[in-house]
Design brief:
The complex is a heterodimer of chains A (175) and B (472). Helices cover 47% and strands 13% of the residues of chain A. Chain A has helices spanning 14-26, 43-47, 54-80, 97-124, 154-163, and strands at 5-11, 33-35, 144-149, 168-173. In chain B, 44% of the residues are buried. The chains are: A alpha+beta (175), B mainly alpha (472).
């Protein structure tokens, strides 16, 4: 990237940063990233982020788990070795279906939950020994940080940010 | 303030009248003697009706509980023949029960919904819920249906006590009399609980307790609007609601034993009262949602937004799963252990009620779960209406399958009797609900959580005509 400068604007209140994001967006600037110590309701909407599709993936993972459970119980208990165990009917999968429901339920939940969590880790790029990306350690404690890329309009943005109640504005080189 | 429109009033009265005519017809068409019963069965058989045909097959397996022993002997020798005298009498009683049972199913369905709406309302007060205050008047209006249904229930209790109907086999002549051919030692062992005076007195007590709370909370809820007494009235309502939830949980359990499980006096299940509660809980939330959507579409509930609808739909979804959990837990435990005295309950239902028994799982579980899983769908009134109608129909079938196999056995059908009872009680419901809603301010203005409820917002819903700035 040719433009390697970004502005870091610090805020000390979630309501203030939310309004600041709206003001910056309204002025036509791109908000690269907002770092917060805790979730701020409405921030994703203010930034114009697309809604997550994580729930949709979980649904399909759940269906996968259910299919796996049906296949497994059918193969093991009906096809492979249909033993008479305590008089349970094993002529077909359906005649013994109620006994398999707890397994089907648990595997559905297991697949949906674990695969969704792993998807979340992969999409968010989180893993052990991952290098932390926060630009300022204070954003994990009590400060909110808005990052805006600069393209020859440094003075404009700085002036705008000063009006939105930023407590500290730094222009830094990015990497 | 909402005006109960003349159109809707006429519609509800028409439903009541059509229903009453149908109910009267079904009572007139019920056989008054064994000969008439035989004619009806012969007519069914000649029509190739499946119930007439399937009856041979199941009659030797599944029996009206109070006379199992005598019958099994008789059927051992003559079960292919319809001219078996005790069998004819058995069918005669089932056919006589039909109009009563059809009426009873609808009555229990609407009575149960009304009282569980009341319990949910009490729970909202006790939980100090912040979202549902704008729906309080809707819930109160629905519980107005408790009064007529409770009165009709008392009439049914009286007719049962006076032996006008034979839905409860343990009330039959001689069941507790050792010298009688009808003597039933198992039921006699339960006579400390299952006796007519006890049953009738308990029934009246449940109805009185529920109605007493409804009368009190409705009066004091309206008083709240103008009380301005430093929330003294509000706190009183809170305390009484705590008491009602306690009373409700006990009376609901006993009610399920007395009014529904008592129809199968040989059978028992620990889970049953919870299961009945789950059935009515889903219906209660669905009815609240449907009435809310209707009233909002008429502009009577300006403070209700899509987030409230979303929450109601979420409850419909959650309690549908809860119902399925209890239904399956009860079924699977009995299926798995397969103890004969418990299994007969499901054998009768699976053999003779296969379609409703299986259809209800699709209607009460699969359909609502798939439809209401999506968060966006839950805030769209049309999806909630579609889901709600299927849920209500499914739970009517649920109550049907709880009651009918015990009273009419294989002689069931869904005809004039069943349908007109449904219309009759629907008419009463509409009349009671909307005339009650028109009688009070639609916004419970004295409630301390009203402000919060009016601004209630579920995070991922974009309300029509609202911006995110309205929710600070």
């Amino acid at each position: 990237m040719e433009s390697s400068k970004v502005i870091h604007a610090f805020y000390n209140d979630d309501e203030v940063v939310l309004d600041a994001v709206k003001a910056v967006k309204a002025d036509g600037h791109h908000v690269e990233e907002v770092f917060c110590p805790f979730p701020v309701h409405g921030l994703d909407k203010a930034m114009g982020l697309a809604p997550t599709r994580l729930a949709i993936t979980a649904f399909f993972y759940g269906i996968t788990g259910l299919s796996f459970a049906i296949w497994m119980t059918n193969y093991m208990m009906i096809q492979d070795w249909p033993q008479d165990i305590g008089g349970k009917p094993n002529f077909s999968w359906f005649t013994n279906m109620p006994a398999f429901v707890p397994i089907m339920f648990e595997l559905t939940v297991f697949f949906a939950a674990h695969l969704m969590v792993i998807t979340f880790y992969m999409r968010s790029r989180i893993w052990p020994f991952k290098e932390a990306e926060n630009p300022d350690p204070r954003t994990t404690d009590d400060l909110f940080l808005m990052e805006i890329p600069v393209e020859n309009n440094e003075a404009d943005i700085t002036a705008l940010l000063a009006k939105t109640g930023a407590v500290e504005i730094n222009v830094v080189d990015k990497h | 303030m909402y005006q109960f429109s003349g159109k809707l009033k006429i519609f509800s009265i028409a439903l009541i009248i059509i229903g009453a005519i149908g109910i009267t017809l079904s009572f007139l068409n019920a056989p008054s003697s064994i000969e008439e019963a035989k004619e009806i069965i012969a007519l069914q058989a000649s029509h190739g009706d499946e119930h007439g045909g399937s009856h041979d097959k199941v009659s030797s397996e599944v029996h009206h509980n109070d006379v199992v022993e005598e019958h099994s002997n008789a059927h051992g020798t003559a079960n292919e023949h319809h001219d078996d005298a005790s069998h004819d009498e058995h069918v005669f009683h089932q056919l006589q029960n039909k109009p009563w049972s059809a009426f009873y199913v609808s009555l229990i369905f609407f009575l149960g919904i009304s009282v569980v709406v009341l319990a949910f309302y009490a729970a909202q007060r006790v939980a100090q819920a912040g979202w549902s205050i704008v729906l309080f008047r809707v819930m109160e209006a629905i519980t107005a249906n408790l009064v007529p249904t409770a009165i009709i229930m008392i009439v049914i209790v009286i007719t049962a006590v006076l032996h006008y109907n034979h839905m409860f086999p343990w009330m039959a002549e001689g069941v507790f009399d050792k010298t009688s051919p009808n003597y039933d030692a198992i039921v006699d062992g339960k006579s400390w609980w299952m006796n007519v005076p006890g049953w009738a007195i308990r029934s009246v007590i449940y109805l009185l307790l529920w109605n007493a709370y409804r009368w009190f909370i409705r009066k004091n809820s309206i008083k709240e609007d103008t009380a301005n007494d430093n929330y003294k009235t509000y706190k009183l309502n809170y305390n009484v609601s705590v008491g009602f939830i306690f009373v409700f949980m006990i009376t609901e359990t006993l009610m399920a034993w007395d009014w529904i499980m008592g129809l199968d006096p040989h059978w028992f299940s620990t889970l049953f009262a919870w299961y009945v509660l789950a059935t009515f809980l889903v219906c209660a939330l669905t009815v609240i949602a449907l009435v809310t959507i209707y009233l909002r579409s008429k502009g009577a509930l300006p403070a209700v937004n899509d987030s409230h609808i979303h929450d109601l739909a979420k409850f419909m979804f959650g309690f549908s799963v809860f119902w399925t959990y209890l239904w399956f837990a009860q079924f699977m435990l009995i299926w798995y252990a397969d103890i004969p005295e418990e299994t007969t309950y499901f054998v009768a239902r699976f053999n003779e009620y296969k379609l409703p028994f299986l259809a209800m799982v699709g209607m009460n579980f699969v359909f609502p779960v798939l439809l209401l899983l999506n968060s966006d769908f839950k805030s769209m009134p049309w999806f909630v209406i579609i889901g709600g109608v299927v849920i209500l129909a499914g739970h009517y079938i649920d109550v049907f399958v709880m009651i009918m196999p015990a009273t009419v056995g294989a002689q069931w059908s869904f005809g004039i009797a069943e349908f007109s009872s449904l219309l009759f009680f629907l008419g009463i419901f509409i009349f009671a609900t909307f005339s009650a809603f028109a009688k009070a301010n639609a916004i419970p203005s004295g409630n301390p959580f009203l402000e919060e409820s009016e601004h209630y917002h579920y995070y991922n819903i974009e309300h029509r005509g609202e911006g995110s700035g309205d929710h600070h």
